[in-house]
Amino acid sequence: MRIRVDEKLNIDTVLYKTPNTLLLGLRNKSSDIAFIVCEGTSMSVDDENHPCKWGKHLTIPSRKEYNLLKGDVITMYFPFECKGLQQAGEDLAFYINENMKCYKRIVIIGHSKAGVCIANMARMLIRKSVLIFVSAPFEGTKLADSEEVKKRVTKTEFGIYDKYFNQHPVDLDIIPNSYFLKEVADFSGVTRHTCVNIISECVGIHSVEDIIFKYIAFRMGYEHSDGIVSVSSQKALSESYQMRTMEIDASHANSLKKVLEK
Fold it and tell me: CB count, 10 Å around CB of 223?
């Protein structure tokens, strides 16, 4: 069962917070392996570690959710004051380099824009790590561009979109041809690590979310996608750098969950 975020929630697992990165510790057991799970979601906490701003209907995992990960688990969020994916990656890399030397192995899992963040961060990591990218828009996604969305949907649909999609810097970074993607992002560091790129495409219908995301893909003109990110955008990293690639049948909403259950 996930925990619903509201202003009364006291988060007692904060490990590290900067204006660009929020890390929560979910210790499964004392271990020499650490998993950092970056869901690509946003949350800011105040000085007393109560949420003060969060993505609409955000839920965060309880300790039981990651029982299949045999090690210590850290979850990452993008604070709303985060300046962008470059700065988030710099802060996360600093924490890993300085505070995770006790672990023999570090596995970093990045979903959606967090996958783009950790691919860009790969060059900043001192130690060789395992990096897993899930549904990551390496060439961006049209869903991050509100003007593009407005052209393709009805006024009512855009009103719904406007409530769920946060137009803050980490989202603007994944607009196709954004300044970040064109001028800042450098994914060449992935060659120094063990990487897996997981491509999700919503083919079948396995949940209510799949129906919703198939409709989004239709409205956005995607032929092959997970509803949010085109398959070609997800594959861009694998086509530039040699790495293991896997394909799964899942919508953007369910791809990370499906990977973690395997």
Answer: 9
Using the structure block, give the residue that is written with the tokens 């909403």. 253
- In this prediction, residues 212-226 reach a mean pLDDT of 94
Q: Is the pLDDT of residue 111 over 70?
A: yes
Domains of the chain, start order: 3-261 (3.40.50)
pTM (two decimals): 0.95
Q: How far apart are CA 90 and CA 93, in angstroms?
A: 5
If we measure between CA atoms, which residue out of 101, 105, 77, 102 comes closest to residue 91? 77
Residue 75: partners with Cβ closer than 8 Å, 6 or more residues away: 23, 24, 26, 36, 37, 38, 39, 60, 61
For the ranges 20-34, 43-57, 122-136, the one whose mean pLDDT is highest: 122-136
What's the CA gap between 232 and 176, in Å, rounded?
A: 12
Q: For 216, phi and psi rounded to 5 degrees?
A: -60, -45
Tokens of 178: 């954004």
- Distance CA(91)–CA(231), nearest Å, equals 29
**Adjacent-strand bridge partners of 249:** 201
Task: Write a three-state SS string for the chain.
Answer: CCEECCCCCCCCCEEEECCCCEEEEECCCCCCEEEEEEEEEEEEECCCCCEEEECCCCEECCHHHHCCCCCEEEEEEECCCCCCHHHHHHHHHHHHHHHCCCCCEEEEEEECHHHHHHHHHHHHCCCCCEEEEECCCCCCCHHHCHHHHHHHCCHHHHHHHHHHCCCCHHHHCCCCCCHHHHHHCCCHHHHHCEEEEEEEECCCCCCHHHHHHHHHHHHHCCCCECCCCEHHHHHHHHHHCCCEEEEEECCCCCHHHHHHHC
